[in-house]
Amino acid sequence: MRGTLVTLLLLCATAGAQEPPLTVEASEGSLSVVPFALPAYQPETSWLLGGAAALVYQPPESSGRRESQLLLAGAASLRKQFSLILSSDVYALEDRLHLGGTLSAARFPDLFFGMGGATSASAEEPYTPTYHEVELSPKWRVLPSLYVGPSGRLYVAEIDNPAPGGMLDQGDVPGARGGTTVQLGVSALWDTRDSTLYPRSGALVRAQARMALPALGSTAAYNLLRIDGRGYLTMPYAPHVLAVHALIELRGGEPLFYDTGKLGSAEMMRGYYEGRFRDRQHLALQAEYRAPLFWRVGGVVFGSVGNVGRSLDEELLSDLKPGAGVGLRVAPVADVPVNIRLDVAYGSQLSFYLNVGEAF
Fold first, then answer.
1. With bands split at pLDDT 50, 70 and 90, how would you rate the model's confidence at 54?
2. In a domain, 68, yes or no
3. Is residue 153 part of a domain?
4. What pTM was computed for the model?
5. Whole-angstrom distance, CA of residue 207 vs CA of residue 201
6. Regarding predicted confidence, which is higher, 283 or 14?
7. Alpha carbon of 118 to those of 122, 274, 306: distances in Å?
8. Would you give the end-to-end CA distance of the chain in angstroms?
C-alpha cells in the first residue's frame, strides 16, 4: 500500500513538471521547481490528498539526454494514513550515471488475511504498521540503454494494534512484532521507451537481486530476485497502443510477512486489495489496450492474472487469479501526454481507482 501512494506521488510530480511555474532557462537546459497537489481514490486508502514539490532538470532537446528529477512528496488519507518520500531519479555525467534512491516513511492501518493464495476473506485482521525505508541504487551505463550497479535497502517496521487473538497478536507470523531488513545486491535498468510519460513503443525492464542476512543486521534471512518488464506496441491504426506488463518476485528463506510478494494494487492486478494474498513467490501478468475516444478523452480495457505461493510449483501456476476492468483517460493539458485515469476493476472485489498517469 505504501508503494501505491509513492507511485501516485511520483506521477503527480511528473505531471506537474510539464508546465512548471518557476523555471530558470540556460544554454545547458532548464531547471524547474514544480509544486503539485491532487486528490485521489483507491480501495486501500479511500480518499487521499497528495502534495509534491519536484526539482526538474530538462536538458536541451538537441542533446538527446534524459530528464532528471528530485522529488519531495507527502500524502494523507481519510483513514489517517500518511506517506512521506524523498526520491531521486537523476542522470549525470552526460547520462553515463543514473542515481536512483528513496528515503520514505509511512503509517497505514492495514489488513492481514494470512499467508498464501488460498486465504479466506473472513480471516481479515486489522493492524497498524509504521515503515521507514532508505534505498540506494546507483547505476553506470554499460550499453546505450542498459545501466547496472549496486543496490542497498534498509527497511524498519513497527507493528501496532494487531487484532486481539489473531495470528499477528499471537506472534506466529514472521515479522508480527516488526523488524529490520538490510539488503545488499545489484540492480539493472534497460529502457528503450519512446516516452517515460506515455510510451507508445519500446520496452522497460527493471531487475534486482538482493540478499538480507542477520550478519548485515536483518531480523530475517532471505534473498530476492525481482524482474519487472513492460512492453509497448503502437497498432497499425495509430494512436492505439497495446501495453503488456509482467512481474516476477522470487524469494528464498523466510522473509517477514510485510516484505513478501503482495497481489493487488492500483498498478498491477487491479480489482484486488493490495496484500489480500501474499507469500514468498509472486507472479503477475497484465495487458491493456489504450485507444482515443474524443477530444482529449481515451478509453482502456485491461485484464490480468497472477498468484502468490510459498514455492514456485505447479500449484502456483495452476491456480492463477484473474482480474479485468475498463477505464477512462482524460488529458487535462493539450499536447501533454499525462492523463488523469479512472479505472473500474473486478478481481476478488469491485474496485475503483482515481489516479494520475498510466497504471504502467
1. low
2. yes
3. no
4. 0.82
5. 20
6. 283
7. 12, 15, 13
8. 16
